[in-house]
Design brief:
This protein has 67 residues and is an alpha+beta fold. The protein contains one helix and five strands, in the order βββββα. It has one domain (2-17, 26-65). A five-stranded antiparallel beta sheet has the order 1-5-4-3-2. The longest helix has 14 residues, at 52-65. This is DUF397 domain-containing protein. Residues 12-62 form the DUF397 domain. It comes from Nocardiopsis sinuspersici.
Length: 67
Amino acid sequence: MRSSKSQRRVPLEWFKSSYSGSHGECVEVAQGPATGVRDTKHRELGTLFFGADEWRAFVKTAQDNFR
């Protein structure tokens, strides 16, 4: 995982889940050379980037634990 400060600036298309509510707990995700994740209410705090293997492991764990 790397922060946005170590990434070269590449325009990304950000997506927010349709499950996101209006209580400020939302994140946005962008696919690129790495998967970016950021807080929708505090974008200025930066972005976390995950490699493909890290992202797949995260998604699998989330799916396994929240079904």
